[in-house]
């Protein structure tokens, strides 16, 4: 049921030195409220943090009488699962805004109380307070808030339709259906939780009213209706008295501030006398039954929330399962539109101080004096709210907002609420009396704990299973003491005690009370560091203990409470350093076991952080290897939670920085397809950075620049070649080619269509005279159809397509006697390739001549090449092929036979192209070619 939520202001963008934001943490008549700094910038931000993650149902704002903002926006904030509960981790969803009146009609003597209904889940509530209404009293353009109130329900755990605690019926209703209205009010908000109650009530009277309200509800359940009526009347009277005393307290405070101490003393006396008189007139001792209850029957004040059963009420097992709508997680909460206005439930105008100057005092029935009522300290230490056990569960009066269907909250017993609250609160439930014993164990628990009972006894184990947290803590402490005092000598008994103690340690680790959890860790530390070495237990016992408890520690490391998570992870790190545990390597192997992808984000992140810490602290020791860590990392990268992948990515980067290339063996190949994925691209870019490689983007840019430069060179050379062609058109060009070659330096090194033939003198074209008077035809002599320009002077091939450009292409791609230099890209004869590399090539400084085979060897490989003596020696009087490294016949014919013949050089790819050409285009007429070349042919660079 919604109730007043405790909170504190953890952030404010500005505040006045006197009216600080911490004033909003408490509600009382003396609260001064918060004011912004003078001439501040707008909007002003304020963030309040709730004690626990809660479902907010109602927000109340009491504004200042003249420092009034024009608008206040509300945002609900929460933190992702697994993230620390810090302001920086919060993510906000906008709920809407409310507008405030300028208060001009009241003469700036009243305050506006805005109450709005919301439905949101989170840890934080953020207020954006916009600029002020301008008036003559607000000289410094400030805004102020007197008080903030938040009403809702704490969320101890997520809603679950299968939760056995979600009871659908209550036996009291089955006995008397008329009581149904007392239990079925899930939306009811008590007037005692309203902001106006605490702000305008004397604190002592407010405590008494709450106690009376509890007694009234108890009386209704006990069917003591006359007593309930008396309590109701007393509550009504005390509310008026509390408001009067509240105003008098303010007046006393003003007198003290004005140093009018006589007036302050007089007010104090008046308040004391008035208070005592009211207590006597209402016979408060009797109402509160301080001398003993007249109806000693025990009443469970925690009404069970449920849906109204039909009449007659069926048995519990016959009821169909209810339809429960789970409240959405804050990330899935639908955001209102940017101009959404929150539904204002009520707007009250309250005078600046108190509206009851003429309120009459209660009737004075007697002048006798009675002893004052002393309110217990536990009820005055805080601004308490009526317990959930005292709240009626029937539907509140219908309003437009209440017509909305809301999911029922989860049900818990009083003791469960107390114990689970310990994970988030510092308070502990009341401890039992010393003479009380732990409650008996159930049959199931007795069977489960039979081994521990045999070792430690039923009394101690019963305390470990008790519902009282102090008993559970005492049980673990007793086991700790007993294990320390055990004498050495009986190893089997020590093993049995260790197994029994580990069983209780597991229960303690899973305990929701922080004190019990700490006691379990303390016991576990003693077992591993003192008990095991003392009794010289072996590795199997230690391994078994670690394997049994690690799953519980892993689960605790993903707990919602920050201190539970931190302590569990710290203890796992500490365990890894224990000599006995470290020797088994069990902990490391258990930690790096890949987890299921369905594991929750908070638990998965904690596992990854544990592995990361183990690697940072111990490196590849104690069972950690590159193989098992990287397999764990690869599986973790597939998790759908970004915070999990962030931890894995950080760990992979650290490992690559330390170990380098072996890390890549476990990742996808580094190619363009893989780098399209953002995660892989970031990883591989980091790897390149570690390796000192330029980023891929810079390499692509450099390559583009080189291509542009190369194209510019080609264009320039093409223009030079075209100019030469224009100058040597027709026969003049052939004459020039017969007198000397075209300078190869003007030819492009990369474009085959722009390459000139290697330098070789062309002979005159052969002229064959026809026999007799028979006209010459193509069939008589095919050579007559060709000119010197149609013949390759190196391989002897003739072709009509061998024009100037056609020969260039032939030299560049097809001539079997030529090849391109792999270093400078020039076309040279294969016969002179070695001399070219050693004497003419641009890269000649990078080569040395081998004295054995006479070939050009790269200098980095030269020493090894000479030392190996594995090359084929060059024989005197023979040619040595630089392609296949074989010795061949001397002279030009030897080269032609080797480079063009059917059984020639296997390493010459152009040889097969020349052999496979059709008869009309190949160099089939060697006689004509030889005749056309006129004897010994020249070479580009000269032959040996």
TrEMBL record:
Residues 442-696 form the TOG domain. The keyword Repeat applies. InterPro entries: ARM-like, CEP104-like, CEP104_N, CEP104_Znf, Galactose-bd-like_sf, TOG. Residues 916-931 have a biased composition (Low complexity). Gene3D superfamilies: Leucine-rich Repeat Variant. Residues 302-335, 375-414, 690-712, 731-781, 916-944 are annotated as: Disordered. Pfam families: CEP104-like_TOG, CEP104_N, CEP104_ZnF. Residues 309-325 have a biased composition (Pro residues). Keywords: Cell projection, Coiled coil, Cytoplasm, Cytoskeleton, Repeat. It is found in: Cell projection, Cilium; Cytoplasm, Cytoskeleton, Microtubule organizing center, Centrosome, Centriole; Cytoplasm, Cytoskeleton, Spindle pole. One of its GO terms (cellular component) is spindle pole. Its main location: other. SMART domains: TOG (SM01349). Required for ciliogenesis and for structural integrity at the ciliary tip. Interacts with CCP110 and CEP97. Interacts with ARMC9, TOGARAM1, CCDC66 and CSPP1. This is Centrosomal protein of 104 kDa. The lineage of its organism: Eukaryota, Metazoa, Spiralia, Lophotrochozoa, Mollusca.
């Amino acid at each position: 049921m919604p109730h007043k939520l405790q909170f504190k202001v953890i952030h404010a963008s500005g505040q006045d030195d006197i009216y600080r934001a911490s004033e909003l943490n408490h509600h009382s008549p003396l609260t001064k409220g918060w004011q912004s700094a003078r001439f501040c910038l707008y909007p002003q931000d304020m963030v309040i943090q709730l004690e626990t993650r809660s479902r907010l149902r109602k927000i109340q704002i009491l504004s200042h009488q003249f420092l009034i903002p024009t608008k206040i926006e509300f945002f609900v904030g929460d933190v992702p699962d697994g993230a620390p509960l810090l302001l920086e981790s919060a993510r906000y969803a906008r709920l809407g805004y409310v507008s405030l009146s300028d208060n001009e009609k009241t003469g700036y003597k009243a305050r506006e109380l805005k109450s709005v209904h919301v439905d949101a889940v989170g840890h934080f509530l953020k207020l954006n307070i916009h600029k002020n209404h301008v008036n003559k009293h607000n000289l410094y353009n400030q805004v102020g808030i007197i008080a903030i109130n938040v009403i809702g329900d704490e969320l101890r755990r997520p809603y679950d339709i299968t939760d056995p605690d979600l009871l659908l019926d209550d036996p009291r209703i089955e006995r008397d259906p008329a009581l149904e209205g007392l239990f079925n009010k899930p939306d009811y908000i008590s007037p005692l939780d309203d902001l106006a109650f605490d702000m305008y009530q004397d604190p002592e009277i407010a405590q008494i009213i709450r106690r009376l309200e509890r007694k009234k509800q108890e009386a209704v359940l006990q069917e003591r209706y006359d007593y309930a009526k008396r309590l109701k009347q007393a509550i009504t009277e005390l509310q008026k008295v509390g408001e009067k005393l509240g105003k008098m307290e303010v007046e006393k405070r003003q007198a003290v501030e004005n140093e009018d101490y006589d007036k302050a003393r007089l007010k104090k006396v008046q308040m004391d006398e008035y208070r005592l008189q009211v207590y006597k007139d209402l016979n408060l001792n009797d109402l509160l039954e301080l001398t003993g209850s007249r109806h000693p029957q025990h009443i469970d004040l925690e009404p069970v929330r449920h849906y109204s059963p039909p009449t007659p009420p069926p048995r519990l097992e016959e009821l169909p399962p209810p339809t429960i709508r789970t409240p959405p997680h804050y990330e899935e909460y639908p955001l209102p539109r940017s101009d959404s206005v929150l539904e204002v439930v009520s707007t009250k105008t309250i005078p600046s101080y108190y509206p009851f100057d003429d309120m009459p005092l209660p009737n004075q029935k007697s002048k006798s004096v009675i002893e004052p009522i002393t309110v217990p300290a536990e009820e005055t230490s805080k601004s308490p709210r009526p317990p959930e056990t005292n709240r009626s569960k029937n539907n509140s009066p219908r309003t437009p907002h209440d017509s909305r269907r809301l999911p029922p909250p989860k049900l818990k017993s009083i003791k469960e609420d107390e114990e689970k609250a310990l994970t988030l609160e510092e308070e502990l439930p009341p401890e039992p009396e010393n003479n009380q014993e732990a409650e008996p164990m159930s049959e199931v628990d007795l069977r489960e704990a039979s081994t521990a009972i045999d070792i430690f006894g039923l009394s101690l184990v019963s305390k470990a299973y008790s519902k009282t947290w102090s008993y559970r803590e005492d049980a673990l402490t007793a086991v700790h003491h007993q294990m320390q005092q055990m004498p050495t000598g009986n190893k089997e008994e020590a093993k049995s005690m260790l197994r029994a103690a580990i069983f209780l340690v597991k229960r303690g680790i899973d305990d929701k009370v922080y004190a019990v959890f700490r006691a379990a860790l303390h016991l576990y530390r003693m077992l591993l560091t003192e008990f095991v070495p003392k009794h010289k237990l072996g590795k199997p016992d230690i391994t078994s203990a670690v394997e049994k408890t690690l799953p519980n520690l892993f689960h605790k490391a993903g707990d919602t409470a920050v201190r539970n998570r931190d302590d569990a992870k710290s203890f796992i790190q500490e365990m890894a350093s224990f000599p006995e545990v470290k020797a088994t390597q069990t902990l490391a192997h258990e930690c790096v076991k890949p987890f299921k992808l369905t594991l929750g984000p908070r638990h998965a992140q904690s596992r990854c952080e544990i592995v990361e810490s183990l690697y940072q602290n111990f490196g590849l020791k104690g069972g950690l290897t590159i193989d098992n860590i990287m397999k764990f990392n690869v599986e973790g990268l597939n998790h759908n939670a970004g915070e999990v992948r962030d931890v894995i990515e950080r760990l992979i980067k650290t490992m690559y920085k330390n170990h380098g290339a072996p890390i890549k063996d476990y990742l996808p190949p580094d190619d363009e397809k893989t780098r399209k994925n953002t995660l892989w691209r970031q990883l591989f870019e980091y790897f390149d950075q570690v390796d000192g490689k330029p980023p891929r983007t810079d390499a692509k840019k450099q390559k583009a620049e080189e291509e542009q430069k190369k194209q510019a060179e080609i264009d320039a050379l093409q223009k030079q070649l075209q100019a030469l062609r224009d100058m040597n058109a027709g026969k003049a060009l052939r004459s020039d080619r017969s007198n000397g070659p075209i300078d190869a330096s003007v030819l492009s090194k990369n474009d085959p269509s722009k390459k000139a033939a290697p330098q070789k003198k062309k002979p005159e074209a052969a002229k064959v005279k026809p026999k007799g008077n028979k006209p010459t035809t193509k069939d008589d002599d095919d050579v007559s159809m060709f000119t010197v320009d149609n013949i390759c002077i190196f391989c002897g091939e003739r072709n009509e397509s061998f024009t100037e450009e056609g020969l260039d292409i032939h030299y560049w791609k097809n001539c079997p006697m030529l090849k391109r230099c792999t270093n400078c890209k020039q076309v040279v004869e294969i016969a002179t390739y070695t001399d070219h590399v050693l004497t003419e090539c641009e890269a000649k400084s990078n080569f040395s001549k081998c004295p054995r085979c006479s070939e050009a060897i790269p200098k980095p490989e030269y020493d090894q090449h000479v030392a190996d003596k594995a090359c084929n020696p060059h024989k005197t009087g023979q040619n040595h092929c630089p392609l296949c490294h074989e010795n061949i016949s001397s002279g030009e014919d030897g080269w032609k036979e080797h480079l063009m013949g059917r059984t020639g050089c296997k390493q010459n790819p152009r040889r097969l192209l020349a052999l496979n050409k059709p008869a009309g285009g190949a160099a089939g007429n060697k006689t004509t070619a030889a005749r056309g070349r006129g004897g010994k042919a020249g070479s580009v660079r000269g032959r040996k």
